[in-house]
């Protein structure tokens, strides 16, 4: 059982602390008198539940503070007159798990604290599932068999010096795989130089890869090492190697055979100690058959081959990745957004992800900005919800419940308390109905 620890921020100067003590039997309560002191307390300890008591002054600073410390389940306590102000209502809507008005009903507050602790505990337990030790994921997030198999292969090839050829669909993580090979290799202290072969201008490709001597062409005012030479002692990563022009493929083959390069305009060769990792999203063997890729270069590169699994083969990792990107781009989110709804989770798992991890990142970032509710729903992700077919009385009941809740919310102007009173249910019951019926609020 997780310890019940509560952070209480007293900005109101009332006698509420006495009521809080009555409601918090069994809790460890840490009291602070300013937002600065609260920030220091949160840096030293992660409080799952917090109570903030405030008057009208300083709501803008409170809004900023709560947005920064969104992971805590906040319960607001305010004088009744303050809740009549748009600024306070907006603050409660965007940041608070629940709210109370003075004078406080201690029994209801006790229940609210219990509910908040329960929800927070569920989140902690979901996030603390067994996983590999820190750093052992090699930068490749995931706990499924597919990514585990890739990590095992990376460990095997990292210690060798032979070229590596990585195949994977666009956006699946080929460069992350190459970085992991480099990081676990004896060359880890050397440079890692990535090159997008499809992005090099054809007229400059020879000079960019192999460098040039002063006076080799107009504008060559000084000697310039190429990208391969700049990776000496480390690893060069040739991304989308299939887009490399045939003349450069010939020069690259010579480098792989002889471990030397010729700068443009040079009369002597330069020995360069570099490991080559190449990657492609196209089938290079088919490109060889079509004449667009040299067969001898293909076999020179394809000594150690790795396949990066597409996201559709990593279903068990989808929500782990989604939560990771949600945290990574936390500063971009709308203040109200706290996470993913169950319907969004289902939509993520059922989507095919043709754009792989890159598509997942883009959809999560868009949803974090565009979502209008507390939880991201399929519409925010740009994914159509996959509704299960429900027949008979159950289907009719669900449709009737959805229509009744939507009508009450519309009539009350999305006011949860007013809609709950009209429906004759508690606020928490209405919240559960909204979640069950996948209604955006």
Explain how this protein is built:
There is one protein chain. The protein is an alpha/beta fold and 441 residues long. The protein has 3 domains: 123 residues, 3-Layer(aba) Sandwich (Rossmann fold); 165 residues, Rossmann fold; 120 residues, Orthogonal Bundle (Helicase, Ruva Protein, domain 3), CATH 1.10.8.60. The protein has 19 helices and 16 strands. The strands form 5 sheets. It has a 5-stranded parallel sheet, sandwiched between helices. A 5-stranded parallel sheet has the order 7-10-13-6-14. Strands 8-9 form a two-stranded antiparallel sheet. Helix 18 packs across helix 19. The longest helix has 22 residues. It is elongated.
Topology summary:
Elements: E1 5-11, H1 16-23, E2 28-32, H2 35-44, E3 49-54, H3 59-68, E4 73-78, H4 86-95, E5 96-101, H5 106-127, H6 145-158, E6 164-167, H7 174-183, E7 192-196, H8 205-210, E8 211-212, E9 224-225, H9 227-230, E10 235-239, H10 246-258, E11 260-261, E12 270-271, E13 275-280, H11 284-290, H12 295-301, E14 304-307, H13 318-328, E15 339-340, H14 342-350, H15 356-370, E16 375-376, H16 378-381, H17 392-411, H18 416-423, H19 427-436
Parallel strand pairs: 1-2, 1-3, 3-4, 4-5, 6-13, 6-14, 7-10, 10-13, 15-16
Antiparallel strand pairs: 8-9, 11-12
Helix pairs in contact: 1-5, 3-4, 6-7, 10-12, 13-15, 17-18, 18-19
